[in-house]
User: Fold this.
Amino acid sequence: MKKSISIMTIIILCIALVGCKNKDSTLKDIKADSYNISYEDSLIYNSKGIVDKSSVESLVKQYNIIELTGATEQQVNWENSVCIVFFYKNKKTGQIYIYDNGICSFNGLDNYTMSDDSNIYDDAIKAHKELKNKSQSLKIDLNRLSEE
Assistant:
């Protein structure tokens, strides 16, 4: 009886260790029809009704193909971070902080290294610039309308 309990315990421990080791290193795919994005400054830009669908789809695609290579304790530079919050039908579907050194965080606490193949940081910077420019253009147009 003791021998069978010992064997069962060893088998369960082996299964648990192998199961944890094979944990998937990719994220759960999300859907989104808009996003909020911020970079460096404290302004948060909302893409809804401003950028076209392909811009949103591009960032969602980059998010969905992120491959994590492990957790890290490495310091990050918050000043060079991009925060993206994805929304689908006005409900939050995902959130990510991306740092310029190939590290990301999904809750702002635990940091993970991304594979070298990930282009999401560069794409997020481009998306931020595009949205910021379009938002400023929109503000200028609204100001002109109010003057007339």
